[in-house]
Amino acid sequence: MPASRVPVVPLTQLDIRGLEHLQRAIDNGKGTILWESSHFGRRFLAKRILCQKGFAVHQIHGEYHMGGFPNDGSFVSWTREHFIRRFFENCERSFVREIIYITSPQSLAFSKILLKLLKQNGIICISADVGRGHKFIPVRFLGRTEFFPTGMVSLAKLSGATILPLFCIQENGTTPSLIIEPPICLEMDVDREGNLKKTVIQYAGLLESYIMKYPEQYRNWHSLRSPLRPIPEARAGYARPRSAP
User: Fold this and answer.
1) Does some domain include residue 6?
2) Is this structure's pTM higher than 0.90?
3) pLDDT tens across 119-139, in order?
4) What is the extent of the structural domain holding 53?
């Protein structure tokens, strides 16, 4: 669980695929958005590998992120804020440049922070399958209708940043594999709504294919909801960065 306490895995023992996609995005000079899943694969290990390879990642988390523990913010305890949260932050800070907490997906301040990072050709990593955002697209996913946020698609179109799906899985028993998929293309000649929908559906289909191939590495089977669930609600607030020392 505490990733920073685990011995660093030698790069020679890792299966790393698609690193050229990330390097090409950096060479393009308009920033990179790494799309990861909150519920699939080894998120911490993915960032540790990228750090070992010399890539500085700005990690974006939801306001109530607790390192994998379910938490909707309905109860905020002293222990949670001063012990559990700090524990996971200390684990993650050793291999990311910065941690930014989103307290309002639709806030202009939050968008400005991420846009500034992308204009500086930064790399941001954010979950693509969480129920937080200002606008959502319904997608048929694992036999249910799930809603995927579209904010990063709009930000990528505005900034010219490259969107890269990121996966980290265990294959062949114990061999970790980091996989950076080819860019999800944004078609500029398609209307805005069509572009949002096509991009989100493309990622959802890719994530579903990984889950079906490695179902034991998906951690959200228990919370799959009814065939049609309410659209998630955005919450008020602002983006709060916490930089690594």
Assistant:
1) no
2) no
3) 999 999 999 988 777 788 899
4) 11-243
